[in-house]
């Protein structure tokens, strides 16, 4: 690593402290992500442009979305994708290991730098172009660490923080010095910012100065394809247990699915059962069934049974079982849409729908699992990769706006109180609806209070937390 690159963690920490101290998340997230992408490009020049764009795209696009419509899910994914972005640029690890490498590096790197072992090395990007995520080849480590104690650049950083911290404390406690500095605008520089810089440095140091974890590297090299020579002939007991249990479970689930389909086709709920109970009951059954299905598939196809002389019979039983679960997903979706059509959208109902999509991905991967002779390790890595991509997509959906507009346009009597409790509802649509339909005076008062609160928040919004949604709340 070049000497000037060793100061990247300090620069990033200072920038983060300036952008985020006593400020919400808005345009500052986009600025920080863009600057970090520039550092990554200089830090890891060996990686190809296509890989670089693939690595930074989720974090940068999420930051841009936050600038338009900040919401909790997008912010959480932005934090996670930031760590994965730096880690994926530094080492070639399978998807499920990248997150853990980022977490381990944050806690491990400062200690390894201060007290390096004789075998400690720093990560460097691989020179091989176009490697697959599942290639299993770790990037080579290139730079041995200084064995004489704390590196010079880290000593300078520590000295800078110590001097700066005590200087700010002395200035705050000395009224004479304060009188000389009172006319100088230091609003942007305060003790809290310096304090945050220290913690940001600890956070980002492990991502920029990354030490590959040996246990994760070893796990990363685990072969994905099963080898028949490694397994003795499987006992008939396990094969029979798998075939009998899967056929029996398929029959039970077929009966349950048939009853639910009859109710859906007839349009009549069982006596004494509400829409909510009908949907929730199916959802809980679905979750239990899918977890059981995936665990059974992973158990029976974990090794030797893949090479059984009549494995096709077991695969047939597995496919029937998985098809029954797919039918259960479709039935539960139908129940959910029926419920939404009657009572509208809420966060809980959207969560149920997103869970159904995740379940669908798990089932599709299970079909692939029983067809191919691969270890369960491949299944978990594929699930991690799909989960990351899926979360990235759903983080770019403005849920409050969708809920507001759907309920106002599709329901005869939407719950205005619920819409006003959303973090970022479509106040313009709610105001337009309330002006056309006579509502309770309390609703009008709450709408007015919410509009005034949002307008005030927009007026006092710091430039760092600027976002388009808040900007639109300003009164003309």
Structure description:
The chain is mainly alpha-helical. It has 19 helices and 2 strands. Helix 12 runs antiparallel to helix 13.
- Proportion of beta-strand residues: under 5%
How does the major sheet shape up? 2 strands, antiparallel
Spans of at least 5 consecutive residues whose pLDDT stays below 50 are 118-122, 124-148
Given the helix and strand composition, which structural class is it?
A: mainly alpha
Series of H and E elements? HHHHHEEHHHHHHHHHHHHHH
Characterize the quaternary organization of these chains.
single chain
Quick description:
69% of the residues lie in helices and 1% in strands. It has helices spanning 8-20, 27-43, 49-68, 72-90, 95-114, 152-173, 175-181, 191-208, 214-220, 236-266, 275-300, 311-343, 347-371, 376-394, 399-410, 416-421, 427-436, 441-459, 468-472, and strands spanning 121-123, 141-144. Helix 1 packs antiparallel against helix 2, helix 3 (49-68) packs antiparallel against helix 4 and helix 10 runs parallel beside helix 12.
